[in-house]
Design a protein that fits this description.
CATH superfamily of one domain in chain A: Acetylglutamate kinase-like
Helix content of chain A: 25-40%
Oligomer: homodimer
Structural class of chain A: alpha/beta
Enzyme class (chains A, B): transferase
Family (chains A, B): Belongs to the aspartokinase family.
Strand content of chain A: 25-35%
Catalytic activity (chains A, B): L-aspartate + ATP = 4-phospho-L-aspartate + ADP
Radius of gyration of chain A: 24 Å
Shape of chain A: globular
Strand order of the largest sheet of chain A: 3-6-2-1-9-11-12-10
Keywords (chains A, B): Amino-acid biosynthesis, ATP-binding, Diaminopimelate biosynthesis, Kinase, Lysine biosynthesis, Nucleotide-binding, Transferase
Distance between the termini of chain A: 19 Å
Function (chains A, B): Catalyzes the phosphorylation of the beta-carboxyl group of aspartic acid with ATP to yield 4-phospho-L-aspartate, which is involved in the branched biosynthetic pathway leading to the biosynthesis of amino acids threonine, isoleucine and methionine.
CATH class of one domain in chain A: Alpha Beta
Largest interface: A-B, 38 and 38 residues
CATH architecture of one domain in chain A: 3-Layer(aba) Sandwich
Chain lengths: 417, 417
């Protein structure tokens, strides 16, 4: 008998039939003798519909009232799912975030969880119920209803799994696991059996939208074993945990790419003390996240800088740079979009010095020039032109031995772990 | 400066435009310097839509989960109304039932309020907010969400007005007050300026659907001054209070009628001890409310009984009577529908002995026979055939001097009270 947390997103409960399918899955676990705690998001378009209604009345509604409004979406989901479970002969009890004991900071629309007091959930479990908890929401010390912001239901599930010491936290979604790269781009992308928290974090931050980074961080910090799997199939999914076993000879786990990239270059910057601090301090206080930063060598006392921001922030970032031109004299600011960041991610990279060279070579062989490079312990990212991105990802996928054809050998002893 | 409770039903907030109109009304009171607490029901068809969704998943959903589901309707209303008030430049804060301090019995779908702790509402009022409270809902000691059952939002408003010692509790609805009879039946029905709690209770119980009897009882018990008025006009409405002033020479306040009536007769009942207790005990334990009971004189040791039930309960009531025929021997059980209960209501009836005779005479003059009669201190009801009900109500309305033509004299000094 295990204690299992299952999390279902909005599309998994988006219709009566899907809700019934989820109820059946929960019943199967109960019938197998497990204790089950389920976290659910708002059904399908509910949240968007509520937002539309609010916009009709107030173009800029107060965050507190928005939280009051949006949390009803998950409350509807948990009540209906509980009813669906009852209708197939099993006991269930639904709980709002505050009923489930979620305490948060006194911040609306993006509160962080400060504490979970799951006493009521344990009582309901002991009485034989499937426990159904509304995702994405909590309550402040003063009894104000809050929401956790984007990815909130993932975070709810992981934090709950940590609080109740669940054996596993299963994240049900519309894909059947984490892939070595986007299967829509690379046909021979393969589903990973295991991945480490850190690798998952790098992939999530780089645009693999399956799991929210905050939830992964929470899982890593509390050592919660995650499984990402499909709500539509019985496939095993991908296990996310501290030490994920690497297949023999494989050092790269996956390849991510992100098209939401712009590069801004500041050319001919005078040798003013603290110039980097001034530029990036000004960008940070405008709320602009800078990703990669490159400084080329100083010539004649002048330097060139380049950095990347998300495409949406490009114009604002140029404005910020122009606004500090009196403090930081420079010759020219230029920008470039139509760029892609391609990244290879893998815990094995640290101890395998040839990994970077192989990436550069594969890109070079396609005649593509690399505009910027950035590295972390387990990641290597290159900024390239957007156009040949599919070719580049495919070439890298093959170069690092990730193509699904090789999965045959994984199907051996590795699959039984 | 007054402290005012305003209650708006579902149709008053059933669309964006209506919601905006309600927000404007609340802003008007705030601008006039009043403190305002608003109780709102779920918008338009929201509750019905939620019930439909639940039925798709479970034909007989658990009451606890139904309460979890349905309370979202009011939570959506309060959040949206608060946003609408903000958008016209006023502060507002919305509260669920539990946030507003409503504690109830541990009963789902029809809980009674046990306590109200309005501290948070006072704090929000003191900070300059219009306070918007979700009607129809509360929380048990154990933190379970409950609903108050039919008429729950009226009860929420009245109980809140009592708890915060409001100067008045205004019930906004789609009619502009309480009428002397149904204006759809009698064109010259007139709006009453005042009515007593007891009169309102008799009228409410008799089918005037404007105010729920439970809310009126609560108002009477806590001496809350109610005003029933239209959310679509600025008309003054009807004031409901302990001592309502009667116009000179008028003893009857209003005339009610109820078509949901069936009569069941048990003929030739043997003279068994406790026969009434057995029959009506059996009906009560089957959850059937009996209204009027008449026993005719005993002949040859056999008696005839007749009683009325609501039309929906007729067949079940006959079943119950048949099921106890071994304990209570009788010759025959018959039933009759196509009946109406017509009632005159007025606090002045007690001290005016000719009132009943006038009713019987007016009905007799129309050639209609009276099948049963029932009285209370301030009410006289007759069961008659359904057919001429409009003629009977019109005739009584005229006989008791209620026709609107006479309202001219009310428009004098009485109107300024």
């Amino acid at each position: 008998m295990s204690l299992i947390v299952m999390k279902f997103g909005g599309s998994s409960v988006g219709s009566t039939e899907r809700m019934q399918r989820v109820a059946r899955r929960i019943a199967d676990y109960k019938e197998a003798g497990h204790k089950v705690v389920v976290v659910v998001s708002a059904m399908g378009d509910t949240t968007d519909d509520l937002i539309d209604k609010s916009k009709e009345l107030n173009a800029n509604p107060p965050a507190r009232e928005m939280d009051m409004l949006l949390t009803t979406g998950e409350q509807i989901s948990v009540a209906l799912l509980s009813m669906a479970i009852h209708s197939i002969g099993h006991q269930a009890m639904s709980f709002t975030g505050w009923q489930a004991g979620f305490r948060t900071e006194a911040v609306h629309s993006k509160a962080r969880i400060t504490d979970i007091q799951p006493d009521r959930l344990f009582k309901a479990l002991d009485e034989g119920n499937a426990v159904i908890v509304a995702g994405f929401q909590g309550m402040t010390e003063d009894g104000e209803i809050t929401t956790l912001g984007r990815g909130g239901s993932d975070t709810t599930a992981v934090a709950l799994a940590a609080a109740i010491k669940a054996d596993v936290c299963e994240i049900y979604t519309d894909v059947d696991g984490i892939y070595s790269t986007d299967p829509r781009v690379v046909k021979c992308a393969r589903k990973l059996n295991e991945i480490s928290y850190d690798e998952m974090l790098e992939l999530a931050n780089l645009g693999a939208a399956v799991l929210h980074p905050r939830a992964v961080e929470y899982a890593k910090h509390n050592n919660v074993r995650l499984v990402v799997r499909s709500s539509f199939t019985q496939n095993e999914g991908t296990s996310v945990k501290e030490e994920a076993v690497m297949e023999q000879g494989v050092v790269v786990r996956g390849i991510a790419f992100d098209k939401n990239v712009a590069r801004i270059s500041i050319l001919g910057v005078g040798d003013v003390p603290g110039v980097l601090a001034k530029v990036f301090g000004a960008l940070a206080s405008s709320g602009i996240d800078v990703d990669i930063i490159v400084q080329s060598g100083v010539q004649d006392g002048k330097a060139d800088f380049a950095f990347t921001v998300s495409l949406d922030d490009k114009d604002r970032a140029i404005g910020v740079v122009e606004s500090i031109s009196s403090e930081v004299p420079y010759r020219e600011v230029t920008s470039e979009d139509n760029l892609v960041k391609v990244s290879i991610v893998g815990a094995g990279m640290v101890s395998n010095p040839g990994v970077a060279a192989k990436m550069f070579e594969a890109i070079y062989n396609l005649g593509v020039s690399i505009k910027m490079v950035s590295t972390s312990e387990i990641r290597l990212s290159c900024i390239i032109a957007a156009e040949p991105v599919q070719d580049v990802v495919r070439a890298l996928h093959t170069a690092y031995g990730l193509d699904a054809a090789e999965q045959a050998f994984v199907g051996g002893p590795q699959d039984r772990r």
